[in-house]
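Deviation from plan, reported transparently: nicotinamide-adenine-dinucleotide complex.
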Amino acid sequence: MKHIGIIMNGVTGRMGTNQHLIRSICAIRDQGGIKISDDLTLMPDPILTGRSHNKLAALAKRTGVEKFTTDIDSALADPHNEIFFDASGTLQRAGFVERAVKAKKAVYCEKPTAVETSEALRLAKLCEDAGLKNGVVQDKLWLSGIRKFKLLRDQGFFGRILSVRGEFGYWVFTGEHEGQPAQRPSWNYRKEDGGGIIVDMLCHWRYVIDNLFGPVKSVSCLGATHIPKRIDEKGKPYACTSDDACYATIETQNGVICQFNSSWTVRVRRDDLFTMQVDGTLGSAIVGLRKCWVQAAGTTPRPVWNPDIDQPIDFFGGWQEVPDATTYDNAFKIQWEEFIKHVALDTPFPWTLREGAKGVQLAELGLQSWTERKWLDVPGL
Ligand SMILES: NC(=O)c1ccc[n+]([C@@H]2O[C@H](COP(=O)([O-])OP(=O)(O)OC[C@H]3O[C@@H](n4cnc5c(N)ncnc54)[C@H](O)[C@@H]3O)[C@@H](O)[C@H]2O)c1
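Because the crystal trials were delayed, the predicted structure below was used instead.
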């Protein structure tokens, strides 16, 4: 058994606690580590770091983690800790990554790595120049819905893929009404705190498109701040200074047209909080977070436009759900296992800080496209 010390910074927050600590690191520990061979198992050994002793103590108690400290420098100085992970705020990320690089730790962090491409690239280069292994969370790639889609794509089910329409979002309560508190942190709606749905979501759509449909070539994006005022965690009203909806069109180098709507101001009437319709010459898919439905060319109905009668075709009935082909683990956990193996055994890990910088680049160009009201090409990084 090889124990891998992991500093988990900023994990008292939403993503850190639920996805990274409980559903990934604790789940890996509960399953007995990552079994590599009869002789070798990799066991993550976390130490929680942050600013509040009380919050860290409560989280450690709740999750059964033994070690926590508000003294990050001491955790960084301990050679047992090989990995530094950061799920703190986006604007805090750079400072922490710099400290981890100085301490010669492998660096893994949440997206976006920064809000500007130059800064995201600087962090990538810091790790590269120091010869440190590094990675960025790209969780959507391991969602079961997307894995089912990829399998069919690789088997040629779709023929030539023509277009993609992604719908992401749900209604995030403003906090103004009693009994309906906001379900996302207030910094998400303040630009000065690293908020905004363009920065948040275009990072994801970049790696989804690059990996599933082809390298991104150009972007046109319109943002909106539909709701100008919300109520924060302390019950105080605040001005929303960042976008809460993003309407983006992205073209790939191989000519696939991708439209992605992302919004915290829509009510859901679709199969999931994120769905993506993919249309190809031989078949189409609706890709959800966990499920995927398909329709083949030969089973495509033949509609005739006639608004004078009720629609005679049951369009929803014409789709077939792709069955589970295996058991699907939590997406964050799968990527964590890949990163731990990368650090311990030097296995490949292509989801680097440089790849993460491409997501920041698409977000930055999306914001620029909105401001300038024009299409922009996305240069290689
Ligand atoms: N991969 C995804 O799908 C996904 C989803 C949501 C958020 N995120 C990213 O995860 C990060 C955290 O988002 P969240 O929604 O969990 O936010 P959050 O506000 O719930 O959590 C942020 C955490 O960082 C801590 N923090 C802030 N400043 C700190 C500092 N100086 N030192 C130590 N800790 C500090 C906060 O106390 C809090 O615990 C963001 O960068 C966000 O973009 C990723």
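The pocket of nicotinamide-adenine-dinucleotide is lined by residues 9-10, 12-16, 50-51, 87-90, 92, 110-112, 137, 139, 185, 187, 200 (CB under 6 Å). We consider this an acceptable substitute for the interim report.
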